[in-house]
Amino acid sequence: MSVTLTVTSSPALAVVGGPIKVTVVTANEGDADAQVPAITAESPYEFSLVDAGTGDGRYALSAYAARSGRNQDSAPAPRPSFSALAPGDTLPRDFDLGALALEPIAPGDYLLSVAWFSPAGTIESPRVPLAVREPSVISLAAGWCAGDDALTLCVAHALPDGRTAVDQRSGSSADPLRGVLFPRDAFPSGDRPVMAATAVSLFHAQESRWYAALVDGAVAAGVAQRAVIAKRLAPAPIQLARASLYELGWQTDRQSAFFLLGGFDGDGQLVLAVASCHARSPAPSVTVFPTGVRAAPAAWCARGSLRDEGRVLDVVLAFTSAEGTSLYRYTLWPDTGTLQGPAPITTHPEPVAALAMDPVGSERPEVVDVLFGPVGVDGRMTLARVALDASSTVALWRFVAPYHPERERPAAWALAQAAMDEPLVLAHLAPSVYALRVGDGAAWSEVVSGRSRLGFLHAVTPAGYAPIAIWASPDGGVEVHPVEV
Fold this sequence. Notes:
This protein has helices at residues 63-71, 97-100; strands at residues 3-9, 13-15, 21-28, 34-37, 46-51, 57-62, 82-85, 90-96, 108-118, 121-124, 128-133, 136-145, 150-158, 164-169, 182-187, 193-201, 208-215, 218-225, 228-237, 241-251, 256-264, 270-278, 285-290, 299-307, 310-321, 324-333, 338-348, 352-356, 367-375, 380-387, 393-400, 412-415, 424-429, 432-437, 445-448, 455-460, 468-473, 477-482. By secondary structure, it is mostly beta strands. The strands form nine sheets. The protein has an eight-stranded mixed β-sheet with strand order 19-18-17-16-20-21-22-23, with no helix packed on it.
């Protein structure tokens, strides 16, 4: 047969949950024109991944199978469409296997090939090696974009060559809980991002999503739509020691976003900072807000909103001491550089385990959920819902930590980002992740087992969907699991 196929992967090493870019080249080695799949039509190619060690088939991926699986029905088969390829010519076409897979491709060593079941017979490429590895995650941010009805993720992870990559899941209203982590930026060896952040939309942003990364004393940012980078901003230096980037930012439209940072100035004072980004600006502009305190918070959370006076950030900081935990509220107006606070919210004799509140201002009551504990031999916990204006404790729930026969305590906690009527609590007590919907008669349920190590535990509550647990583990990379409680 005069038509041949070859496939190459770039790079040959991919990470779980990320893009797996491959190029299929159709060549006409005959003496006459050949009819080959038109580049404008849905791809008829089927990709095969077999285990490099055993030869067992692991994945069969195609555009048609992906469309059928996501529609949860048998979608109509694509109508064939052809174009003429002259003798000696080639037709390259790029694909992302990560986007074709209904679930992330598991780590392993594979042999990759591509086949076209042509009218004249099956044409298959030679096999080439492809390795998929778990990402070495440095930071993970996750949030629900109410303005776009979509989940967004941002991950910073180490690459095998020593560089650090930042990938982002942009979110799609057609497929809000799934998707591919698209590359956003990469930093040279040694310039490791302290933290990466993803923006949640205050309004519909048509899948455009901002991201940010804190890199060696500078904050970098950019905006992209799925795989397409619209604009990268140059890093803006911030003169703060022990700087941290809050995991969520807020975008007011497709063109602009702002992100929250914290750190210490030269006098040892805790400083909050807001990095404002615009697609027409060469770099973020940074506005600093001295807090008047000289201690690092044990936990923090924030929410952004647009009001008549412009952009507003409410930041809650939890400080711990021998006496317990004290919570304070700061309100920042980035457009005027005005700060209000610290305003005391509450004090509690137990240590803080987690903080959470709606990341986007809404008409719901202005509250923050605070998880205290565990304390005592039985691991007593207290979850308090407190009004931001310190006027009242709206609700109080008491329960115990997940049981362990040797009385070990969970290594990580997470609270749902939204103020649910019955808040959701997640706990990682190796080797399991547990969930609890607080309330009368509530009991811990297992979300997943077999996770001896994990980090960056998140509880996200998408409107109209079951809650989801998100984390990064050495065994499976970034994982997203529904929570049935």
